[in-house]
Amino acid sequence: MIWIDTKSDDVYYNFGCELYFASEKRLPDDVFLMWRTTPTLMIGRFQNALGEIDAAYAREHGVAVVRRLSGGGTIYTDMGGWQFTFITDKNPGIEIEFARFTEPVLGLLVSLGVKAELTGRNDITVGGKKISGNAQYRLGPVTVHHGSLLFDTDLDALGTATRPKAYKITSKAVSSVRDRVTNIKDVLPPEHADLTALEFRRLAVEALADAEYVITEEDEKRIRALADSRFRSEEELWGKTPRFGIEKDVHTAGGTFRIGMTVKYGVIEDAGVEGDFFASPDAAELLETALKGTAYAPESVRRALESLGGKLNLFRAGVEEIARGMFE
Q1: What is the CATH number of domain 2-238?
Q2: Per-residue CA distances from 121 to 72, 99, 102, 187 (Å)
Q3: Where in the chain is the domain with CATH 3.30.390.50?
Q4: 217 Cβ partners below 8 Å, 6+ apart?
Q5: In this structure, which long-range contacts are made by residues 195-198, counting pairs with CB atoms below 8 Å and at least 24 apart in sequence?
Q6: Count of H helices and E strands in the chain?
Q7: Burial 141-177 (b: 16+ CB within 10 A, else e)
Q8: How, if at all, do strands 211-213 and 2-4 pair?
Q9: What CATH number matches the domain at 244-325, 3.30.457.10, 3.40.640.10, 3.30.390.50, 3.40.50.2300?
């Protein structure tokens, strides 16, 4: 097993690194990554972003939001936790299979005296509380398995950030199951109670890898390109959601805009606007026309509404405020 230190806490870079070594640069043995991030919400491939997170909380607290390539539910990560990745082309068959990759991690935890066990389809738990969730996807013959490890994560932030604000939304996307969670640090036996997050990673690398690969300048260039094109873009985050309907109330000093939309794979198919706001007589129709056919992403919506200029004649409300409110 070859260990790669990404030397980064940027989630977009780390997912770019994962994709690069899975799709463009194959090493002579299986690859193991273990990385962490600044506060981040990772949304499953098939989920509706607004149905899974508190977008306003994320923006106000500087929490990054990313859509990963694997399925499963939304998770919160920060510098108190770890993400691990296994990349291999030695996995026979095409079915998703978790045990092969979770068992080495489980073995490490047990060796530290943690009474952990595999439960459900993809979790590691202690006393019924989740400490690790796992997900997986394939790129041709290559299997990418990644998982989270709650070592000393801010569980209050986790609970808040993954709780979407109340609004009417109907969707065919998969919703997360909120599991009870705990930190590994809180269930370590007394002899390991002082173990730090970095020491924990060192033990994991020693147990699971026997060689190291150092990222080159050429690797770095491609990793950053993949990070930007596949993970950092708004289109990737908001545009990978199946058809859903949403009704959102945007409150402004000039009144409330109730905006209903049908969105399919990131494009607004239909829109309706009503409310108690003050504006020109055709403002609702102008807003609806501007939204239809627009990519469902904050910047795209903002640009579409700004293109209306002063035609709306809004009272104590601005199109930028409306566009922002549509994603909170």
Answers
A1: 3.30.930.10
A2: 10, 9, 11, 22
A3: 244-325
A4: none
A5: 195/112, 197/36, 197/79, 197/80, 197/81, 197/82, 197/151, 197/152
A6: 11, 15
A7: ebbbbbbbbbbbbbbebbebbbebeeeeeebebbebe
A8: parallel
A9: 3.30.390.50
Global pTM reads: 0.77
CB burial class (10 A; 0-12, 13-18, 19+) of residue 242?
middle
- pLDDT tens for each residue of the chain, 328 residues long: 999 999 999 999 999 999 999 999 999 999 999 999 999 999 888 777 777 788 778 888 999 999 998 888 888 999 999 999 999 998 666 566 788 888 999 999 999 999 999 887 788 999 999 999 888 888 888 999 999 999 999 998 888 888 765 444 455 444 443 447 999 999 999 999 999 999 999 999 999 999 999 999 999 999 999 999 999 987 777 766 667 788 888 998 888 899 999 988 778 999 999 888 878 888 899 999 999 999 888 899 999 999 998 888 888 888 999 999 988 8
Q: How far is CA 110 from CA 101, 104, 105, 116, in A?
A: 15, 10, 9, 6
